[in-house]
Amino acid sequence: MTEEQECSAVLQQISAIRGAINGLMVEILEDEVKLHILSPTARANSEQARAADELIEVLRTYLK
Fold first, then answer.
1. Tens of pLDDT along the chain (64 residues)?
2. Is the pTM of this model over 0.70?
3. How far apart are CA 21 and CA 26, in angstroms?
4. Where are the domains of the chain?
């Protein structure tokens, strides 16, 4: 393997790790929103639930 190929492989691994970490972060943030921000009594189609879903989508898009 050449030095350039090794560098490319390391950059690909870093990119994959970053993607995995971002995915994990979204999952944790989604749980936090649902457990600590969204009221347990909120109905699935309530304004609060829709706002929570919108926030989660923004996070998913931003951390993609």
1. 677 788 999 999 999 999 999 999 999 999 999 898 888 888 888 999 999 999 999 999 988 7
2. yes
3. 9
4. 3-62
